[in-house]
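Re: [help] complex structure
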Amino acid sequence: MPIKKSHIVILFLLITIFGLILIKYRGQTVPNIQKEVSFEAKLEEISKVWILGIDALSAEEIKKCSDNSISKIFYQCNPEFISCVFEQRKEEGAVVNFQKENKKYKIYSKAYEEKGSWPGYSLWGEIILGQESKKNKEKKEFLLTDECRSLYLPQRVYQYGQSTLKNKWTWDNIDRHIFIDKHVVTNRDINEWIEQTKVNSTEEILFNKESPHLPAEFLKADQMEAFCRYRGKKVLQTQYFDAISYLPFEMDKDRQAQVFQSIVPWSRKEQSIFKVWDKLKREISDKSKDFERVACSKTVSNECLLGEKENAHFRAPSWSGHFMVMGGYLEYIKNNIHPRRNLKASSQFFKRTSPWFRLGERAYWDGDGFSYRNFNWKGEDPLREYKSFGVTFRCMKEQYTYEAL
Amino acid sequence: MKLFSIIFSLYFFFSVSILANMNEFKKEVLNSISTITSLSKLKILEKSNPLIIPYTWTPILEGRTEIANKKKSYICLMYYFNKDENKESLALYSHSIAKKCTQLNEKDFSVKVTDLNQVQFKVIEQENTIDLSFLKNKELQLLRIPFYNLPLDLWSKKNFFDSEVLSSQTMKRKYPGIFVLPSGVSLRPDTLYGELDDLYSKGKTKVCHDFNSKCEETIAFECGQCRYGWFSTIGRGCENGTRKYCGVDRCGNKGEPACPRGFIHKRSESKEQVCSEKSQNAFCKTGLQLFCNEQKVLVCL
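Output below.
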């Protein structure tokens, strides 16, 4: 059958119509400023909620996803919290989803993904733009990294332990990038670790699921290490703990020849804990303030109220912004120099005039249990024999200059 | 009438093709460039710019998308100016194979658009965004490209150096805390090194960053591929870096590498003194001694 001109015309028209249909249904993948603006608006919204926590929420939202008796810090970079917020904020045409693999949210952890995963620790999410009824939707996947938890340790010379005339053990982190967690690990963190990884521990991991905001106090030392690995980190070591605790004398010099030490995180001058409190009492009596409240705002000891003790881990920042480096909870700190000095003992178990309330003073914990016999208090025993002594911990990380994630 | 139908159909056919191609170009450019993690070049697009050579494909933007050291995507946005016809073209190279942008051929390009006019780049510094605009068939095309994964203070730096792009924790991105994934990236890595019980003392740890005796880098940093982190060792005395191994950091323990003590101490010793039992550059647990082994690593015994 000979091909007529009309056949050619019809053929071209068919191709054209087909092409137009193709473009229309691929239209959702065509980038235009409007769509990118929508994605960017969502990214900005997500970033605010992630970093600011409850400060980014309306009063109504705060009630649904948080508890106002808990410190704001708990809600920053908090996967549970952000997934709750965006569950409430589902709007037609723009959805932020965190659910994946039948979980409420999905954490990628290099140490634990079965087939391996490269982000050190990040929360997966996606933005979906498009009407529910329509087939073509646009998606953008992202990862949320924990930028709230840790602080950068300034590069300078530091002292480990208490210095004497004979012993000045200095070290420095020049050209090294060290990040140290602001506060100790919470029960929420442990619960997330167990749920996300189905972690196989030879011994049960003890924590209090009912109080997610409180510190996790009953992990053994090897379990602490395992948790920090999940976060792409390791348990904090003593020389770094000292670096965030001692108040530097010459802030403008990072390579000072001599490093002097304070005995408390908030003051340089006094050399005796008694003088520290005496001075504070004198200052308070001038201004008619309550001594106990002021003292407990600086460090939490046995004299402080229960509420202050419970929330100690989110309070009293040191010079570097790290919380409760003296007082509050017992804290395990790995010691690569003197292994039998691995416990920050200044805590709610002692009066504030106890010798433990001096930076650099450390007791010993065997890492294996929480009864009296698992500790060596070096003669300075707690006020009474408590049923158990909970031990908290925090993580740290060294990062090379160029690590994208 | 028939002739008119033919011409009309041809016009529609080619319009659709051009439109599809333009859309494809915009989509590819947006997806590739917005998620780059390092930017190494951005040229001011002025025809009077002596670096823009007519009749030559010139890279105007060079970057890389890198995820944990392994998954990389190399991006070159290329520009071509036909001086005689006063026509401009743009093309994109986006591939996992590293190639120098100046050595690309047309067959390397993922997408290309031609017959353009007034191609312009405009940097909106405070928003970490660039606006790319041009005319095609007298119609203005505007592409707003945000840099999601680059630091906000990028524009204050005069030279773009990859090594200055620090990790997510030290750099403020356009949207803090967010890393936007390029589409189509699988979250399964190539390889992760190391097992939990790998010990240096048993010779089971893998080197992930190394320098030779002349302090030249022999193994580029790939410790991001270490499943359980990495640790530095002291002994080479190189100011530009240390040998690093994949594995759990057990420094200071018997048989394991000594822990680093710092730069200040390193500076005070000669290279030979760095790896000696009296070195001040590293330390061990109380009771253990420093020892320089045959690998020029200070270990604790």
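Residues 157 and 172 of chain A are 4 Å apart (CA to CA).
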